[in-house]
């Protein structure tokens, strides 16, 4: 393997990736937008997670968001500018799916550190991690249905793999928050702790893994994923097809307009 520090140790618009010994700390850095992510950020994050495979000194990745939230989902405000650049819904879906797949495929354990919102595609990228530690103020939210869309980022499959179909259906069809304690009870979070204890818990887990045998960690992760996420690729493909259709629908336009206008959407289809 090539020791490619430049690919994993970087600070760019939207996120930072910083080496800390054998730990790579990746942080989404848009707290003013509750760490909503645009197309460019999704692509760059996917590149960074994939580069871990070329850096044998990394044993674990800690993935989090700056400030009080993990990730509130796709940054809808960036849509018009992306469209002007020729970035299609197809390309955005590919970038989101590639990021989720890169987290799952990373050859070392990924720890998600969750505060506040993990919403929209943020649910998928959080639950794609191998260990998910959350503060007691955190929550999961699949709000897609509220704006005329369907879950993406593998979220429904990742929820169902850990917690079963009934909870996945509840989250996806009702579009309501799932608070951290309930997410932990359902098996979606590894642990839930008070906010002031979160960093210590995440650091302890990362330090323990950082001193483990990389190849054994890689093969263990592969075995766990094969046992639980065999349907992920099919789910990502189905989400892409469905979401591209919905992104062009009158209901999506109504949902976004209502959300921005802070009123209740009136769907017609």
UniProtKB/TrEMBL annotation:
<dbReference type="InterPro" id="IPR014748">
    <property type="entry name" value="Enoyl-CoA_hydra_C"/>
</dbReference>
<dbReference type="Pfam" id="PF00378">
    <property type="entry name" value="ECH_1"/>
</dbReference>
<dbReference type="InterPro" id="IPR029045">
    <property type="entry name" value="ClpP/crotonase-like_dom_sf"/>
</dbReference>
<dbReference type="InterPro" id="IPR001753">
    <property type="entry name" value="Enoyl-CoA_hydra/iso"/>
</dbReference>
<dbReference type="GO" id="GO:0003824">
    <property type="term" value="F:catalytic activity"/>
</dbReference>
<protein>
    <submittedName>
        <fullName>Enoyl-CoA hydratase</fullName>
    </submittedName>
</protein>
<comment type="similarity">
    <text>Belongs to the enoyl-CoA hydratase/isomerase family.</text>
</comment>
């Amino acid at each position: 393997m090539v020791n490619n520090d430049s690919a994993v140790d970087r600070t760019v618009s939207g996120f930072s990736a910083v080496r800390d010994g054998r730990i790579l700390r990746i942080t989404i850095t848009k707290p003013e937008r509750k760490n909503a992510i645009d197309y460019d950020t999704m692509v760059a994050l996917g590149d960074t997670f994939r580069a871990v495979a070329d850096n044998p000194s990394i044993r674990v990745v800690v993935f989090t968001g700056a400030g009080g939230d993990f990730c509130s989902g796709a940054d809808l405000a960036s849509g018009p500018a992306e469209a002007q650049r020729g970035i299609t819904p197809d390309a955005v879906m590919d970038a989101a799916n590639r990021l989720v797949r890169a987290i799952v495929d990373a050859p070392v354990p990924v720890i998600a550190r969750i505060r506040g919102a993990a919403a929209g595609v943020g649910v998928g990228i959080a639950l794609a991690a191998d260990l998910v530690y959350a503060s007691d103020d955190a929550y999961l939210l699949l709000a897609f249905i509220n704006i005329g869309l369907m879950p993406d980022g593998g979220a429904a499959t990742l929820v169902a793999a850990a917690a079963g179909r009934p909870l996945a259906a509840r989250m996806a069809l009702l579009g309501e928050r799932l608070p951290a304690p309930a997410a932990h009870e359902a098996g979606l979070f590894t642990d839930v702790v008070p906010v002031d204890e979160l960093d210590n818990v995440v650091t302890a887990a990362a330090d323990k893994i950082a001193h483990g045998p990389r190849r054994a960690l890689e093969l263990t992760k592969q075995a766990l994923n094969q046992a639980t996420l065999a349907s992920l690729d099919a789910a990502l493909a189905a989400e892409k097809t469905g979401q591209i259709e919905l992104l062009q629908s009158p209901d999506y336009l109504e949902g976004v307009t209502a959300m921005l206008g802070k009123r209740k959407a009136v769907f017609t289809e």
